[in-house]
Structure formats: C-alpha cells, structure tokens
Design goal:
Blueprint lengths: L2 H14 L5 H8 L3 H11 L5 E5 L3 H13 L3 E5 L2 H11 L3 E4 L8 H10 L8 E5 L4 H9 L4 E4 L4 H16 L1
Parallel strand pairs: 1-2, 1-3, 3-4, 4-5
Helix pairs in contact: 2-3, 5-6
Length: about 170
C-alpha cells in the first residue's frame, strides 16, 4: 500500500470511528503505531503548504529554506508530471512554478492545474528567468495568479506569497 493510500485509509477509519486508537489503526493497517501517530499529526498541521516546482536545485533549496524559516510547510517537485501528482496528493495552499523544465514546461503544468477541479483554485506564482512581456502575459492568461522573474528579491517574493494566500482565503 503506498503512502497516499495509507493516509486515505487512516482518514476513513477515523471518520467511521472517531474514538479509534492509534494502536487499533496500527493493527488494522499493519503499520507501526508511531507511524500512525506521525501521519495523523501531519493531517493537523495548520501551516500554509507551498509546492515549489523547479528543476534547478540551486533555486529550490535556498527558497525552500527561506520559506521554512517563515513557518511554511514546503513540498518540492523537480518536473511537471511530478508537480501535477503532488498538487493532487498534497493539496498545497500555493504553488511556485518555474516555466523552463524538462518533460513538461510550466505553462502546460499551469494549464492542467487550472483545468482540474481539484487544483483549479490553488494560487500559482510563476517564478522564472523568462522576463519578456509576452511570456508574462501568456502566464497570466493561462491562469497564473502572479509572475515573478529571476533573479528575484526574496522580500518581494515573500510579500507576493502572503498576498496570494490572503486572496485565496477570501
């Protein structure tokens, strides 16, 4: 059973019996009790979750660290197909998306996210080196909520993230 299937089973068991113990869940699913506790704790994490999609580790890691310091929960993806899967399984509060990636570019990822009923309302901030006006217009036209060019100012990006999260909650 994969990780997502285990989480779904735990949620089903809790919905069916709110008083079920971690040890009962552990026995039913055949996983250690401490793993059950960790998974349940993860469900109740109230931090805003951000999915960062970038194939360049030099961009991904520093951005991840600086956002974690701001108390965001960060999930990473290094290509388009992985981003689409994580967007559906992790249900982030916001997605930061690079445009230039192997396999599937950010435009296509954004289009697919905005057409999917499960992910269409997740704010997307495009973070890319493409700074031509036509690229910005295309990104916003396909549904991105904001467009930031690299190199970027970290304080400005954090302000744009807060703003997008605020808008999404209203």
């Amino acid at each position: 059973m994969n990780s997502d299937a285990i989480d779904i089973k735990i949620i089903e068991l809790i919905k069916n019996n709110e008083k079920i113990s971690n040890s009962e869940i552990s026995i039913i699913l055949g996983i250690p009790e401490d793993e059950v506790a960790q998974r349940i704790e993860k469900f109740s994490d109230t931090r805003s979750k951000i999915l960062i999609v970038d194939d360049e580790i030099d961009t991904l890691l520093p951005l991840q660290k600086s956002l974690e310091v701001e108390d965001y929960l960060i999930v990473g993806a290094s290509n388009g197909p992985e981003a689409l899967i994580k967007a559906k399984t992790e249900i982030p509060d916001l997605i930061i998306l690079d445009l230039m990636m192997p396999e599937m570019d950010g435009y296509e990822v954004c289009e697919k996210l905005k057409k999917d009923p499960l992910t269409k309302n997740i704010p997307v901030i495009i973070l890319t080196a493409k700074d031509a006006v036509r690229d910005k217009v295309k990104g916003l036209d396909i549904g991105a909520d904001d467009y930031v060019t690299k190199p970027f100012n970290l304080k400005e990006l954090k302000a744009r993230i807060k703003s997008a999260l605020r808008r999404a909650k209203n």
